[in-house]
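User: Hey, quick favor. My workstation is busy. Could you predict this chain's structure for me?
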Amino acid sequence: MSIRRKACIAGAFEHPTRKAPDKTVAQLHAESARGALLDAGLTLQDVDGYFCAGDAPGLGALSMADYIGLHPRHVDSTDTGGSSYLVHVAHAAQAIMAGKCNVALITLAGRPRSEASSGTQPRNWGPNVPDVPFEAPFGAVTVNMYAMVAMRHMFDWGTTAEQLAWIKVAASHHAQHNPHAMLRDVVTVQDVLDSPMISDPLHKLDCCVVSDGGGALVVTRPEVARALKRPIVHVLGAGEAIKGQESGQIDLSFSGAAWSGQTAFAEAGVTPADIQYASIYDSFTITVLMQLEDLGFCKKGEGGRFVADGNLISGVGKLPFNTDGGGLCNNHPANRGGITKVIEAVRQLRGEAHPAVQVKNCGLALAQGMGGLLGARHGSATLILERE
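Assistant: No problem, here it is.
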């Protein structure tokens, strides 16, 4: 059954901290939950559904529901990395349709900055993950797995480092207006190219920030949302996908967004040309470029030309993206920035983004999340959101 206009995002909150050495992950979850409920005009007693992912401490939803003081009749702890929170919005809408809950709370929090997790260390998934014997000996690190995709894209399509740099430039133009952003200085293409090489061809400024923080969303029945004094944001369509290694037959030319996007657009009944604002997961500049192609905003191989010359800058380009500065400049909490993509899309649809970057009469937005490693197995989730 389609979830089209069957659920609304009634509350959204982004934790303002970017470094929290004096707080626990559980505290950040709870503070984010409180912020989203206040934004919606609801209370803990109204919540009967709870959603969280692997960033939640202890026993996940069980531990966090108890810590926050919830008594949910429906829980979901699906974990697909950074795409988890977009998946949770879709699953919350499905649960609401099925009568499992009326008000669903989704929370994210983490402290990678305080814990010195930079993404340049070898990934350690634990001894029981099936890929470990095949991959651990090679010491794959996050940035290398994305750089490999970037190099392949350059080889196949002639994409340049200058074109990738334009993605960072656009993010910086938006971040200058965000008082909470970690990097608020506007940069040029040359600044990106002059920054240290981290993993060829990705420079330091091609990589996202590492931050503590968190966020939360409240998804409700439309009847509940209409009773609140907030603009109505409908969930119009959703798609989720997992792209794996296919027993070694790895194709680096596309991401899981090619599948999740197709599903979301079909359910929403709209096309990429209809989208007025896009929140795109931006762990690295190449992550953005790949998803823009795979979502259908441009043809495969044309991403470099599409993002060049400020085409992603609000008020300048054809497709404003990540108007909060995104993971490249604002924050990337818990190494899982997906929830922030939904939060900024909600702000745009409500008309609550910073005036300098607010898209005029924004009525249709896309949020896209990515989890795992683009050069290996990863999850992808796409949401199409609409202002009533």
